[in-house]
Fold this protein.
Amino acid sequence: MKKVFLFLLTFVAMVAEAQTKGNFEVLDLGSFKLHVYNTNDALGDASYIIEGKTGLVTLEQPLFKDNVSEFDTWKIQCKLPPKTKRFCPLVLK
């Protein structure tokens, strides 16, 4: 019984380690794009960037260091401003 328990515990630890990084999805919704970052962290969070023609808004930024660095790297690769403000109003002109 102890061997089965240790095997299951090891398996769960390996699966949890394999899911440390998140993934990104971009949804084109016509007049704006919704960027979704699924963190795959212990809390199962998702972060959102709403991108319009003249600005963007970030909501629910990641909490853990690995996810924050991955989120910031992705914003730079997508040429989104690295210092976006939270809850900044999106004004379309």
User: Anything to note?
Assistant: Residues 2-18 form the longest helix (17 residues). Helices lie at 2-18, 65-77. Residues 19-93 form one domain. Strands lie at 23-28, 33-38, 46-51, 56-59.
